[in-house]
Amino acid sequence: MAQKATGRVLLILAVLLASIAAYVWSGHERVKMDVSGATTPGLKDDLKNGIKLGLDLKGGIHLVLQVQTADAFKIESDEAASRLAEQNKIQELKIGAITPGTPGEFRIAVGPTTDLDKLQETVKKQIPDWEYRREGATWVFQLTSGARKALAEEAVKQAVETIRNRVDQFGVSEPVIAQEGADRIIVQLPGVDDPKRVKDIIKSTAFLELKLVEAGPSTDKTALLAATAGAVPPDAEVVEGRSNEDDPSSPKAYYLVSKAAVVTGRDIKNARPSQDQMNRPAVSFSLKAVGAEKFGNFTGTSIGKRLAIVLDGKVQSAPEIKDRISDSGIINGSFTPERANDLALTLRSGALPAGLVYLEERTVGPSLGLDSIKKGITAALFGALLVFVTMVVYYKRSGFNAVLALLLNAVILLGVLAQFGATLTLPGIAGFILTIGMAVDSNVLIFERIREELREGKSAKTAIENGFSKAFLTIVDTHVTTVVSALFLFQFGTGPVKGFAVTLIVGLCASMFTAVYVSKTIFMLEYGRRERAESVSI
Fold first, then answer.
1. φ and ψ at 526, to 5 degrees?
2. SS3 185
3. What spatial distance separates the first Cα and last Cα of the chain, rounded to whole Å?
4. Domains of the chain in sequence order
5. Is 385 helix (H, G, I), strand (E, B) or coil?
6. pLDDT tens-digit profile of 381-425?
7. pLDDT at residue 351 in the model
8. Three-state SS at 37
9. What pTM does this model have?
10. Which of 26, 98, 224, 275 could disulfide-link to 418, CB 3.0 to 4.6 Å?
11. Which residues fall within 8 angstroms of residue 43, CB to CB, at 6 or more apart?
């Protein structure tokens, strides 16, 4: 018995030391509180070892965004129309003007000279996800329902990934970014110092296009289109800019640029803030291999022409192409250093596939978060103290057994949460308190079983052994059913609900070890060495 107890003690000590080491060396966060209950300013620096804090405890912003999937349909329409226009030149299909319609729709004019058979074959090969109907001399193209659904789903997934990349590069710790429903995204950013800047970075489409300048700049649209008989050519478009690129207060101007972009933000490999030749803030970028090849071929045959750098539908600059450029470039504009840095960040993280609309915004101040921490800790300590006192008064010396098991349960719980980088939320604190109740409930079941055995005249050692063995299945049953419920909360819940589930699951697993294994070991140490133990202080 003594040797068996010694082995159990060594295992318990190993678990205890491992839990303490996990908490101390985890490199995560612990709130420093002084006697008055205040905390040192700057939560990012205050939280050093222990558990990371969630939005409701650390402060920050909670956002609900909606992805404008119609924007993705429009981009797909433009690309499909561009492919048909290119094939029209290559194969001489002799189609008329291509005009946009609603998002996910465009029209082409056909005439007596149009090769309809070749056009149908081209449509099947080049844009297989589109269906069309004939309305007189016009073919109306629409995305198929399957393609619309797939495109909408992909747009939301890509938006989630893009937002995550941007937030990660911005340096926000422990963000929560998750899809909710068909087209909504939940974003929780704890400890944010500048919510407006982060919101601007998240929402910025940062869609970069490099396009050939056909005419402009001109402050008068009529004058701009004079050479094209006052009409915008089907393969071009009018884009706004400034009459003087170096002066942000200069009058608005217009550029006539090619509709098809030479390269886009999707071709960018890297972007970083830099300076132009006048030492003004700018953004340098490099291109991926495919984009570099396209850009090199284009600039090599377009020397002397102007290239418009279009960002989110506005011309930032339109420099002259003086030589062949292959894999890099620079974006000039009236940028502040912060704006250049943010633009480089958004270009690196990729362009959003569609626009975003803010549906909900909540800001939690650090003081409110700290008040929640203080109240949560106070509730946990007060509740634990009441449990300790009740157990000692009601179960006498065996109550101290339960108290020691509960303390070890708390240490294991904190160690595991710290080791696996779990985030503690206010519901998580509630889960911690509930774990104390579940753990002591196991001790109550065991102690009452021991009492029953003693009333039946069993010896102390037999009563203890039978008490643990008979209560074991009941304890397992209650813990398993609760863990299953918590797993559903974790699977289908978001944010704080998941924090509650994680804390509860870890606490329940720890309580199984402490209530059954640790408590029995303490009884073994106290009564196992006695030749005849006639009574138990219970």
1. -80, -40
2. strand
3. 22
4. 2-57+366-528 (1.20.1640.10), 63-67+151-360 (3.30.1360.200), 73-143 (3.30.1240.20)
5. helix
6. 888 888 889 988 998 888 898 899 889 988 898 888 888 777 777
7. 65
8. coil
9. 0.57
10. 26
11. 31, 53, 58, 59, 191, 366, 369
